[in-house]
Structures are given as C-alpha cells and as structure tokens.
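Retry 2 of 3 after timeout on previous attempt. Resubmitting structure tokens to design endpoint.
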C-alpha cells in the first residue's frame, strides 16, 4: 500500500506542477499579447495621426491647385529670363513691352532704362533650368531658382563669352498673374 500512496502522491504532484505550468504559460502568453496589443495600438495611433496630417496637407494643397499655379508661374519665369537676359537691338522695344506685363516697375527700370537699346553687345541664354518648390505657393509669393548659361556676343570685335548664371527670383501673385518683383544673382 505504501507504493500506491507514493504513486498517487507522485501523480498529484505531477498534476499540480503540470497545472501550474499550463497556468503560468497562459498568463505569460496573455501578458505578451497585452504588450503586443499595446504596441500595435500605439503604432496605429501614430499612423492615424500622420494620415490626418497628410489629409490636411492634401486639402490645403490639392494637386490640381498646385498645378494651376505652377504652370503660369513657370511660363512667367521663362518669359522673364528671355526678356531680361536675351538682349539685342532689334528686339529691345518688343521686350520692353513684354516687361510691362511680367516685371515690377523697379525691375523694368533696371533692365529697360531707355527707349532704345544703346549697347554694342548681343546676349542669349541656353540650358535654362527652373526649380520651383511646390510648397512655396503660400501667400501668393514664390521663390524660384534658375540656372542658365548666359552668352555675351560682342558686336565690335566678334567675341563670345559664356558664363554660368544661378539666380533666385521672387515673384508675387497680383490680379491672378505672377509678377517678378526681385531677383538675386548667386
């Protein structure tokens, strides 16, 4: 009978230990799951906040709206570069007339101080690259960077000089049209 009691005690101890292990495994698995759930909830909250910010940004700047401002600005900047940096005696009056539509009075007086062209040079531009940042369209003001090669032809001695030019152009939206207000050569 002693052997039966020891065997039954052994079985009871084995059942208790097995039950304890199963309980401990379930509790630890539950704690791991809770930690994982909290981590996923935190990530979800972060993603939702980022999504909300992106939606607000998208509402502020609809692609069609950005494009509708980008194209006219690009056209005005391209025209400004041609009017301001391509000079010849024959096109001076026409360029001066174009300048009235795209430049501020200050800039127009800098580029076209007289009624006729009195220079003995001709200039041109090549490899024009325009860089417009889409987020710059706020408050009807834009800053545009332009890189080009400016060619100077001397009419007296037939010499040609090419120099790289990098300029920062400031434009202001006035009456639904972009006007170049200032520029800085860099």
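Retry 2 succeeded. Sequence:
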């Amino acid at each position: 009978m002693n052997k039966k009691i020891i065997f039954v005690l052994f079985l009871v101890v084995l059942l208790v230990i097995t039950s304890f292990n199963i309980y401990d495994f379930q509790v630890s698995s539950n704690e791991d799951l809770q930690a994982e759930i909290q981590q996923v909830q935190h990530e979800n909250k972060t993603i939702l906040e980022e999504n909300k910010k992106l939606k607000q940004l998208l509402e502020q700047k609809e692609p069609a709206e950005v494009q509708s401002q980008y194209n006219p600005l690009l056209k005005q900047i391209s025209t400004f570069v041609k009017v301001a940096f391509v000079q010849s005696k024959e096109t001076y009056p026409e360029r001066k007339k174009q300048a009235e539509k795209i430049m501020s009075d200050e800039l127009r007086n800098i580029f076209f101080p007289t009624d006729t062209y009195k220079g003995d040079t001709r200039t041109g531009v090549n490899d024009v690259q325009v860089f417009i940042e889409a987020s710059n369209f706020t408050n009807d003001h834009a800053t545009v960077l332009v890189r080009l090669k400016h060619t100077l032809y001397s009419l007296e001695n037939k010499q040609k000089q090419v120099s790289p030019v990098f300029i920062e152009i400031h434009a202001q939206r006035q009456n639904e049209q972009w006007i170049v207000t200032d520029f800085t050569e860099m």
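Attempt log closed. The mean pLDDT is 81.
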